[in-house]
Amino acid sequence: MEQLIKKSLTRAQICEEVRPGPSSIIIFGASGDLTFRKLIPSIFALFKKELLPKQFYLLGVARTKYTDEEYRNEIKRWLLNENEALNSVLSFIERIFYISGNYDDDSLYKLLQEKLNSLDKMFETQQNHIFYLATPPSVYLEIIRRLGQFELTKENSGGYSRVIIEKPFGSNLETAIELDKELHKYLKESQVYRIDHYLGKETVQNIMMLRFANIVFEPIWNYKYIDNVQITVAETLGIEHRAGYFEQAGLLRDMFQNHMIQLLTLVAMEPPASLEDSSVRDEKTKLLKSIRMYDTYEIDKYFVRGQYVRGTVNGKEVPGYREERNVNPNSYVETFVAGKFLIDNWRWSGVPFYLRAGKRLKKKISEIAIIFKEVPHSIFFKNNVELEQNVLILNIQPDEGFSLKIQAKQPGSKLCLNTLTMDFKYNEFFNFKGPDAYERLLLDAMVGDQTLFVRSDAMELAWKLLTPILNKWEQDKEKGLLFYEAGSWGPKEANELIARDGREWR
Ligand code: NDP
């Protein structure tokens, strides 16, 4: 009994939300899409849940000219449109301030210094600053250099100074290393928070719980029992209003360098010794080092890239990628990628990891499917009729949860087998919609927990893996680019990639 009480006490303590000390968030790019759609609503959600410290303020920085009052009104309008309660919105916006200027202009940073000094005093935030770079990546370096030159990245005056950097972090291995090198002139790695919002999603965090808080999965989580792993991140949306960005990036940079590789890493890494950020990040790095790098001549064999053409998505006709606004009508940028990854270590020897992601696909879905091997000897069917394999599916969105497919007897006098699905849906079980990924990550940044942020070495290793592929595609340009109808599952060659191994996408 005593032990039980002790255990449940510990569990309750674990569940307690960590409350950050005095903090401020300074958003560069405060007039932009990410700020309004994700950052402000997430900070507001933390405010409503009383997870923000009492000593807190938010300062927006961008080129657009607003007074504090005008910026507050923009935010008020946005939140009221989202059906938020007027009273809470009014008390929230009292903590919001705004300054404008050009990022390459010293006077902006002088103004910033003055503003921070006065706001730190007013809100007693002890000079604790989180700078969030929500601008286009082309200005990241400029901002960091100036913050450094104006000593805003220094921590020796008592408070902390942390910088959250949005993806994309560089555009290939070379530019990522260059950006990192420059960053480290002004910041220690412990001050850098490279954000990948996928890591803040409840179900992504649950991968570690599922694997390492249960005894049943880990013993079979290896080449002896797992046949293959499939990771799919499919979107029905096109590029929306982000043509400028997407034309530069393409899908491999946009999805694989960060989200897809991170998901793979969480599924495949070894159990960390503890939940401490360095421990988890060390295991991720170790895993990344064991992903096989292909020779240039193998790239076409293991990777398929496609671009959508006009088609029908959710019953509505949509234009092809080259017909989208601000897209080059001869663009060879990929909107779909499928690839086969192999991990050269003891646990995963010979187990392929098939990854695919794309825009304007048939269904919006993000999931990881762990497909187990067949039973070694079937006593149920003669004539080599195959039994369906067990599959564990981790649903990341939209129906967050997981399901396990198993074989069971169908009621009746005959010996008939059927596939059952044991389903767990987060929302149904907990009767609670989990927080947005940005809420979790912003809170973690305020308490200084870097576990869910990408460390420099992991970022570099992901680029190292993908840069040869990008180089090959850049060389080949249109050669090798396949076309798929919007509303399909991508080019048929993506099916052939996996069919060659005698498998199919589930
Ligand atoms: P926006 O294109 O909306 O730009 C943000 C703000 O930056 C703009 O409001 C603008 O403000 C300023 N800006 C635009 N162009 C320039 C420029 N050339 N020089 C200086 N400032 C400029 O970007 P998002 O908000 O969509 O994204 C911000 C960052 O977050 C990007 O790095 C993006 O890749 C990343 N990201 C975005 C996601 C999203 O869903 N939007 C998702 C994941 C990552 P002003 O003109 O007032 O200065």
From TrEMBL:
Domain Glucose-6-phosphate dehydrogenase C-terminal: 208-506
NADP recorded as keyword: yes
Residues bound to NADP(+): R63, K167
Catalytic activity: D-glucose 6-phosphate + NADP(+) = 6-phospho-D-glucono-1,5-lactone + NADPH + H(+)
Domain Glucose-6-phosphate dehydrogenase NAD-binding, chain residue ranges per copy: 26-206
Binding annotation for substrate: H197, K201, E235, D254, K359, K364
GO MF annotation list: glucose-6-phosphate dehydrogenase activity; NADP binding
The keyword Signal is assigned to this record: no
UniProt cross-references to Pfam families, sorted A to Z: G6PD_C, G6PD_N
SUPFAM superfamilies: Glyceraldehyde-3-phosphate dehydrogenase-like, C-terminal domain, NAD(P)-binding Rossmann-fold domains
A GO CC annotation given for this chain: cytosol
Pathway assignment: Carbohydrate degradation; pentose phosphate pathway; D-ribulose 5-phosphate from D-glucose 6-phosphate (oxidative stage): step 1/3
Gene3D superfamilies linked: Dihydrodipicolinate Reductase, domain 2, NAD(P)-binding Rossmann-like Domain
Domain of life: Bacteria
EC code(s) of this entry: 1.1.1.49
InterPro entries the UniProt entry points to: G6P_DH, G6P_DH_AS, G6P_DH_C, G6P_DH_NAD-bd, NAD(P)-bd_dom_sf
PROSITE patterns according to UniProt: G6P_DEHYDROGENASE
Family designation: Belongs to the glucose-6-phosphate dehydrogenase family.
UniProt xrefs under HAMAP family: G6PD
Function according to Swiss-Prot or TrEMBL: Catalyzes the oxidation of glucose 6-phosphate to 6-phosphogluconolactone.
Protein name in UniProt: Glucose-6-phosphate 1-dehydrogenase
Species for this entry: Defluviitoga tunisiensis
The organism's taxonomic lineage, starting at the top: Bacteria, Thermotogati, Thermotogota, Thermotogae, Petrotogales
Gene: zwf
